[in-house]
Amino acid sequence: xxxxxxxxxxxxxxxxxxxxxxxxxxxxxxxxxxxxxxxxxxxxxxxxxxxxxxxxxxxxxxxxxxxxxxxxxxxxxxxxxxxxxxxxxxxxxxxxxxxxxxxxxxxxxxxxxxxxxxxxxxxxxxxxxxxxxxxxxxxxxxxxxxxxxxxxxxxxxxxxxxxxxxxxxxxxxxxxxxxxxxxxxxxxxxxxxxxxxxxxxxxxxxxxxxxxxxxxxxxxxxxxxxxxxxxxxxxxxxxxxxxxxxxxxxxxxxxxxxxxxxxxxxxxxxxxxxxxxxxxxxxxxxxxxxxxxxxxxxxxxxxxxxxxxxxxxxxxxxxxxxxxxxxxxxxxx
Length: 333
Known about the structure:
alpha/beta; single chain; 15% strand; nine-stranded mixed sheet
């Protein structure tokens, strides 16, 4: 009986090893299933993304096709129209029109006066005007005014952002204006100082209330009107104040405008336009100094009164600042 049991023992051990091998096979199968499931999931995600992408493309094409006719695709996106050079020039010429006073066009210059009008009236005095216009360095004549040779149109048209200004018939645009005027001894003869007072008072009076102004008189030196240190608002009260002082401006001394320009270009904000009037000669080097001081590139409207002695340097100042030059022959005797 013992030999038979001995033979069974090895057979039992063999069964144990077989059972262990079967267990290992089950674990490997489960791992394989997990890997397959993972790959299947990734493939499914990729397919899903591809399908959604195709769906977006198709839907966008369908949206663009809405409103189409006869199977045509209607594109509602903005289009760019190209216009050839000549056509563009014609279009601009038709929609944007810029004009300057032609010869004989009196509508561009306000309120001309006859020679019979008194010099101290609150209107233009008896002056026939003659001028050369300086724009971008080019000097040329402009429209007839009051029977004279012509008045510079320059930046004319007036009525800028603050209503514009006019002085001796020369118009300027903007809302801040400086008047630099000669009150030397030579202005005391021939009714010139009276004409200056009338023109200056009229210019100040006609400014709109949103404008500001400064007046500098010069002879041997320069001084601000009423010792004002800053811009004067063009309200009625300040206009009355200015007119009272202007009416008493004396004429005496020499002709040196440079300190007036130095004071004017220190103002802040900078002037929109500067009027410069003189009846005599002054140092030609003033033109270069004025160009250096005028960092804001304010246009300077130069007015030679009664004499052409200062004409060359006045034209230089006007040209350098892109302003205008005007000659006023003077007051009839």
